[in-house]
Amino acid sequence: MQVRSLFLLLALILVAATTEAGKNKKEKAKKDGSKCEDWHWGPCVPNSKDCGLGYREGTCKDESKKLKCKIPCNWKKQFGADCKYKFESWGGCSAQTGLKTRSGILKKALYNAQCEETVHVTKPCSSKIKSKSKGQ
What we know:
Elements: H1 2-32, E1 40-41, E2 45-46, E3 52-60, E4 63-71, E5 83-87, E6 99-109, E7 118-124
Subcellular location: Secreted
Domain Pleiotrophin/Midkine C-terminal: 80-135
Pfam families: PTN_MK_C, PTN_MK_N
């Protein structure tokens, strides 16, 4: 009988301890959160050079926050790292300019970024001639 009582007491203590631990986590989440819903975010500013880890500042009324962010080192600098585009295939090579072109349509603007709806990019034509005689 005493073993059963001891076991029941330990079970109650364990339940009480886990309940308190859960409450503490919820309280921390509420402390870090903000009631403000209209946040305005600036661009991601890299810590060094023009890509890699950095931070983004946001403001809402009289509050401000900094979030960690990352700019990939292969991003299209002219469009901004927060503007995501869906690009079509590269067009043919122009003999006059020696450039290929393609366009992209805005897929997503992150953190309220101001993005162009359609963008056009160019790159030099390849001087290499591709051969299709690999399997012959």
